[in-house]
Sequence to fold (149 residues):
Amino acid sequence: MDEEEDSSAVPGLSLPKTSSPLRVTFVGIMPTLFAHCQHCMQVMHATAMSPYSEQLESYPEDVKKQYFQLSEMAQKLKAEFGEAVIFDPVDSMSPQGVWLSIRHRIMRTPCILIQGSRVFSKIPDYEELRARIQEALEYGRIASTEASH
Fold:
């Protein structure tokens, strides 16, 4: 039986509809932001209010910079790869973050995992990350940039 293919996610790339999305996990310090209900947040955004700005102000500059870099990268990934890629931010201080840090011997954050393999020990530029994701989607393999752990 032939599997139907979906080429809508990445131009020039055909993935079987039954294949699961590629998981890109970012492990790092994630600001904790509290929000209103979904409806109220839509209203706030529609009126150009910034409900998170006061909460973010209390974080150090490097954490805010990392947060905005990650957010921008995630938006680009979603726009380019659609449902072929899931971007999963994990706070390194959460139970899952601690587990990933132990399992992958992550001594410093940020760190990026693709399909559960450590690929970057820092935030790469978008083109580097894009190339690794494309490689993983096309060939099903992930080459680590890690020279040593």
